[in-house]
Amino acid sequence: xxxxxxxxxxxxVLFLLLGSAAGLLAGALMMWRPEWLxxxxxxxxxxxxxxxxxxxxxxxxxxxxxxxxxxxxxxAVLLAGAIYIIYIFTLHFARADLLAIxxxxxxxxxxxLGPLLDTLVLVFLAGALLALLVGLFLIFRPSLLRDLxxxxxxxxxxRQSLKSVEVQRDLDQLVFRHVRLxxxxxxxxxxxxxxxxxxxxxx
Length: 203
Description:
Blueprint: H1 2-32, H2 34-44, H3 51-57, H4 64-69, H5 71-91, H6 95-105, H7 110-140, H8 143-152, H9 163-166, H10 172-177, H11 179-202
Helix pairs in contact: 1-2, 1-11, 5-7, 6-7
């Protein structure tokens, strides 16, 4: 597990190194050859609408009838999964080992690790208890779930929330109006990131 995490982390750093090198190149072009970037911008600027993606996501997928048709089977699967999660998190949960692994990764402050892990475990246990109740209802009294299902199954459209994404914002004019200043900022930021990541990789 630690080997996979190390490989993923190193791959992320290499990806950020490539991004920093691209930022250096873009910053240098902004300072000395801004007209080249203008030509690239004219060819690269293509409007991509999210409306088609929104239509796909808004399609209703009704699987309730399957659960009621195979109520005993789906209830038994939910029940088994819930019991397994409760069993693992109550009897076979190596809290100290997990805290040691997270502490070695330096992702979170050590003082926050314990409360965060305990909160995560409580969320899993609450979800497992809810699944346990739903599984029991599906096996013994599926009709009690129908009233809850009618109240909970409300269609939510993403069209309103995606309207702000669909608005075109022409930032190129602002950038090219202050092209050399943006180039200096991009060059300095990319150089700093490149040096910091290269130093981290060399350790």
